[in-house]
Fold each of these.
Amino acid sequence: PPTDASTRRGAFIVFEGCDRAGKSTQAAKLVEYLQKRHKQPSLKSLGVGVGETFTNNLKESETMTDKAKVAQLWKFPDRTTHIGKMIDGYLKNTKDLDDHVVHLLFSANRWECMTAIKNILLSGTTLVVDRYAYSGVAFSAAKDLDINWCKSSDIGLLTPDIVFFMDLEPEEAVKRGGYGKERYEKLEFQKKARKIFLDLKDSSWKVLDARQTIPELHQQIFETAEENNLII
Ligand code: T5A
Ligand code: NA
């Protein structure tokens, strides 16, 4: 595979885990790290022999677009789409839906983003995705839907390069400000989902002890991404 930054596709990095495990926190920190890290070497090489003023101008002119070209943060469910709004209503208990329907909506919410995700990765941008199909299977199967039926609607989605599974006992997760009022934020249900998650573990998974501090976890995450050649 090409390793040159100009031709290489972006990495597809997923965060998974039960509610309150710290996925959004770490996903955001990783994106920030990737964007900052990318900036440093290009500025250094451009600065050589050019002078202080020119380097400073370059720093100021760096736009959000440049950052978004390096790495982007995505999240599932994407509650902003039509399908996402139905999911949001369901999670907030304002709308009741059959379990099968909800499962298919979560899956469709991923499918509707697939072309965009593929194009972003092919353009060389790294995508850090907060929850993916593993959540889809774990939470639906925790309602006793057939696990193979649950897996089937996600067959054909792009496979992530790496999955960071933030593992936290739901008893510990409750202590983090407690669960809110959303439908799935119940201790017994989360315990069931965690068991199913761990059965879904494959060779792309890195299971992290999510009881560690935020900086400790961040360091493990970027080091693991580097070791796996996902960061250049
Ligand atoms: N779902 C999702 C399905 O059923 N099917 C699907 O296909 C998909 C994709 C909503 C629900 O949808 C279900 C799963 C969910 O039940 P969501 O919108 O991702 O999913 O849920 P959120 O409420 O946004 O996020 P979570 O509750 O999962 O939280 P996170 O992202 O794991 O945790 P985070 O980073 O927000 O942190 C939670 C709190 O802990 C603190 C943070 O500051 C924050 O207060 N914290 C730490 N404290 C101590 N030590 C650490 N290391 C900490 N890291 C974070
Ligand atoms: Na989150």
Amino acid sequence: MTGKTALITGATSGIGRATAYELAKNGLRLVVCGRRQDRLDSLQKELESETAIHTLNFDVSNYEAAEQAITSLPEDFKQIDILINNAGNAHGLDSIQDGQIADWHAMIDSNVKGVLHISKLIIPQMTARQAGHVINIGSSAGKEVYPKGNVYCASKHAVLAITEGMRQDLNPYGIKVCAINPGLVETEFSAVRFKGAPQADAVYKGYKALQAADIAEIIYFTISRPAHVNIADLLVFPTAQANSTLIKKDT
Ligand code: NDP
Ligand code: 8X3
């Protein structure tokens, strides 16, 4: 793995940020992406003594901005060996009749179109080299639908469909494609979903949720398997969680 370059979207928080730390620790070079420049700057500062790191500030839902950012990569960061499509969020938790159009657009634009945009910009260099690894961060919400999850669940079902499509289309090129599908992970995810409202605090109370570092370790395990091994699809829950709605809480 040492010397390979990974591009991580959504590296300014949660799973993406923890993955940047885990991969840097294991000698991977990094291109880290997000929209919050102060966080990209601090990530660069914290990791630059450990590995070569380059930051890119763009919105994954904006194809032109993404293209400009990827094109701007300096020569020694242009080859991306591992693409981690992680950027995304839920926006709102509402019954279908009450959902906000702006929330639906945000989820489809970031979680679905964002994955397609960055994949379109990176995969052609992988097919040209006949090598590469794409990891899409799906969700347990891509495998089941829960009440009021409607559009978020649809976006993550789409991520799984895209992942399967990629695995088939990229099979002739020897490119590995994987979806990692977490259940509840304690990150800024719920603060974003509930727009900072107090409901967000309750989501991770009364049980031990997965931590971002748990998923980061799984991502490193996935990318560090031997050349002939592709972890194709992985579902991971906290022990307290059996499915999207069955969670064993202390009280
Ligand atoms: P966080 O809110 O902590 O992190 C989300 C990251 O995505 C941030 O770095 C944010 O960066 C980035 N991001 C969001 N939208 C965009 C956008 N339009 N353009 C560029 N960057 C964007 O949440 P998580 O770490 O939990 O989420 C990461 C992924 O994991 C998501 O795809 C989420 O759906 C998935 N997931 C999360 C689970 C959980 O329970 N937490 C469970 C299953 C899956 P910035 O704001 O700086 O742009
Ligand atoms: C995040 C997990 O259950 O909030 O994808 O949808 S959940």
Amino acid sequence: LVSAISLFGAKYVVGTSADFPPFEYVQNGEFMGFDIDLIKAIAAEMGFEIEIRDMSFDSLIAALVSGNLDIVISGMTITAERAEVVSFSKPYWTADQSVVVREDSDLTVTVLFGKHSIGVQTGTTGDIWVEDNLVTTKILTGDFKRYETYTLAMTDLINRNLDAIVLDSPVAQSFASVRPVKIVAILKTYEDYGIAVNKANKALLDLINEGIRRLESSGKLAELNLKHF
Ligand code: ARG
């Protein structure tokens, strides 16, 4: 109770990589998306302020650890490796990976084999999946390209500088609905998304978990789902 009182009204810096619709993106200079609405709703529910900062996905965990960020919400998958350095909230979403090619492409899931070029966002679970399953095994012998954002990877795919992108399924669907790309395979990776905080910040983690619980039981979380998916 004492820690809850002292956290009330505090202001936290929230990091995200705003290249990941419909979870986080920038529209008319504003941060939008499911994650953005979720963290705003948790903050309103639990009585704290937030300031959102856009960063490359690959630098989010280091920024939490060094104290430059208080919270990360970025469609971030809870993995054992990440959970060694930061604390995760209870899961708020489940996703798989998808393989995306240009709409006019004849390529299928075979794009993952042989001399094709695959793009990912640096430091994501898609990056790790391709590295571990295709690159180190030499199943993929073409270029493996890492991008700072999925937006840049999409541009390269559409400009024919890439054969395929591997990224989270809901985000692949979102890109496919507005850009000339299509999903040719789903990789069942069963990833849970969590909100991350510094390991030392147990009180903030409790606050976030309580916020998620309240939004679940009030139906607000279901409303956010309907709004964004
Ligand atoms: N879920 C994947 C991961 O945790 C990708 C997240 C990418 N998020 C983003 N906002 N670009 O590695």
